[in-house]
Design goal:
The protein has a domain of about 90 residues: Arc Repressor Mutant, subunit A, CATH 1.10.10. Helices cover about 40% and strands about 10% of the residues. It has 9 helices and 3 strands. It has a 3-stranded antiparallel sheet with strand order 1-3-2. The longest helix is centred in the C-terminal third of the chain and has 16 residues. The chain is elongated, with a radius of gyration of 26 Å. It starts with about 25 loop residues before the first helix and ends in a 28-residue tail after the last helix.
């Protein structure tokens, strides 16, 4: 059966925004946020969308995020190959919590598939000894997918390969990593990013005693 799952969907892909010259993701992010006006996308390559223009900084930032997805599928393919799995089966294993077994229907919802299309990936996981089907203790009419000890190990290796931060991220100071994370988290969740703490300078303490006036001679 052909694997038709939409693995992994756009909203699940990490956004690697890297400056083409400095190789610093946050540097590029801040450049786009602080640059006034609108016009042609300066930092999005012509090979991405030739002549692409944007009406706002938000449009430009989103285009940069989309462009940063280019290496994600290659990373998934490499991690899956190292595990001896297809990309869909590898991503299905990542979506299985070893401590909380779920049904194939629930897995299909996570993978944005029809339930019938997860049969083949889960069959492959079972053949490879990474997961097994067992009756749900609370409803024996439904089978749940239980990750085996070997499956847990392979899953941890997949997660390590997939979500290892790029060198450009690791080189950022901790304060910039925190700022970048807060801004991206706010964009994903629709909340407001916390404002950076403002430094307060102590006010000069004024003396309550006025300077003595010299009496005229």
């Amino acid at each position: 059966m052909a694997e038709m799952c939409e693995w992994p969907r756009l909203e699940h892909r990490p956004a690697f925004i890297v400056h083409p010259q400095t190789d610093s993701p946050l540097h590029l992010f801040l450049l786009q946020c602080n640059r006034p006006g609108a016009g042609k996308l300066r930092y999005v390559s012509e090979s991405f969308v030739p002549g692409l223009s944007y009406p706002s900084r938000a449009h430009e930032l989103w285009a940069l995020v989309v462009q940063s997805f280019s290496g994600w599928e290659a990373r998934v393919n490499q991690a899956a190959t190292a595990a001896g799995l297809s990309p869909v089966s590898a991503w299905a294993l990542v979506q299985l919590d070893p401590d909380n077994p779920i049904s194939q229907k629930e897995l299909a919802a996570r993978l944005h598939c029809n339930p019938s299309t997860v049969v083949d990936p889960t069959d492959r996981l079972e053949v490879n000894g990474l997961a097994i089907r067992r009756p749900n203790p609370t409803d024996r009419r439904v089978n749940v997918l239980v990750v085996t000890p070997r499956g847990r190990q392979v899953r941890e290796e997949l997660i390590e390969r997939l979500f290892e931060p790029p060198a450009a991220f690791r080189r950022l100071p901790a304060s910039e990593q925190t700022r970048f994370r807060d801004v991206m988290l706010a964009a994903v969740t629709g909340t407001h990013a916390p404002s950076p703490a403002r430094r307060t300078t102590p006010k000069a303490v004024s003396s309550s005693r006025s300077p003595a006036r010299r009496r005229p001679a």
